[in-house]
């Protein structure tokens, strides 16, 4: 999806593209499972998860601090990516505050699955005569 573009100077003031579903789903499921491991490990049916179950149980029993650290680091990275998305919006001429908020939220939730489209976006340069 691409939101309306401004014709003034050829710069897109409100460019937005929704992230692809599969990479977004992988990110959400990964962070969701990670959070489940951290906050509710007693509710996980390890034997029902195939090879992921014993691996998860091993990580929680032997590397609990490391798992917690990686969980919070993952969210810290998502915050950093979201802030970077705002900087990119401004540098690429996306000045609409609602669109910037959409990029921020989408990047916070989906990380690189979203940020990729903003990094890849090349606004058209208007020829000066």
Automatic annotation (TrEMBL):
UniProt keyword RNA-binding, yes or no: no
Chief place of localization: membrane
UniProt keyword Nucleus, yes or no: no
Topological relation to the membrane, as annotated: Multi-pass membrane protein
Membrane-spanning parts: 21-39, 70-89, 101-119
A GO-annotated cellular component: membrane
Top-level division of the source organism's lineage: Eukaryota
Alphabetic keyword roster: Membrane, Transmembrane, Transmembrane helix
Alphabetical list of Pfam families matching this protein: TMEM254
Subcellular location: Membrane
Name of the protein in its database record: Transmembrane protein 254
């Amino acid at each position: 999806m691409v939101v309306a573009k401004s014709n003034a100077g050829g710069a897109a003031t409100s460019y937005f593209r929704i992230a692809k579903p599969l990479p977004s789903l992988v990110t959400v499921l990964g962070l969701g499972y990670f959070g489940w491991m951290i906050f509710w490990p007693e509710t996980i049916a390890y034997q029902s998860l195939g090879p992921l179950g014993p691996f998860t149980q091993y990580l929680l029993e032997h590397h609990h601090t490391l798992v917690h650290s990686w969980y919070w680091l993952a969210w810290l990275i998502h915050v950093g990516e979201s802030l970077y998305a705002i900087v990119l919006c401004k540098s690429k001429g996306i000045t609409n505050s609602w669109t910037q908020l959409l990029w921020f939220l989408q990047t916070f939730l989906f990380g690189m699955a979203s940020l990729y489209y903003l990094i890849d976006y090349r606004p058209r340069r208007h020829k000066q005569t």
